[in-house]
């Protein structure tokens, strides 16, 4: 089986686990994320506006926005890294690619903390995303500029024993779930 086929199979299984977790989820994970971010007040960070069955970081992002800039990803095009537009609670948003909502007017920031959505993760910091490589390219570019804390945010049910990863897949520094904070 090719690496792409392995990734497709892993994504399919992880989407099913994530959907089940989403349907029964309690908001506890966002509180855990808020506690983690409180130790980094004022540091520019990027989160995301959730799509489909992604775990929702918006309450933690709103809290963090009272202390410093918070951005959300804006896709620039296939094969390009993400840029992050400053976000604030209740600001006007527009539809972006893949159904993600983004600020009506872009004001770019460079985050030092990136809250990363994912499909699956493992206990070694591996992350499986949607397959476009956007976060891998973005984290690689940000890390070339200086230290960046990449925080995966997921339901505990999204954990996989092992993921089919390739050399270009960027590792996470930690994972926050409703059950645990896992550091690497």
From TrEMBL:
Where is ATP annotated to bind? 127-135
GO MF terms held by the record? 5-formyltetrahydrofolate cyclo-ligase activity; ATP binding; metal ion binding
Tell me what this protein is called: 5-formyltetrahydrofolate cyclo-ligase
Q: What's the catalysed reaction?
A: (6S)-5-formyl-5,6,7,8-tetrahydrofolate + ATP = (6R)-5,10-methenyltetrahydrofolate + ADP + phosphate
Q: Where along this sequence does the record place binding of substrate?
A: 49, 54
> What Pfam families has UniProt attached to this entry?
5-FTHF_cyc-lig
Quick one: a GO biological-process term for this protein?
folic acid-containing compound biosynthetic process
Q: Give the EC number.
A: 6.3.3.2
Identify which cofactors the protein needs according to its UniProt entry.
Answer: Mg(2+)
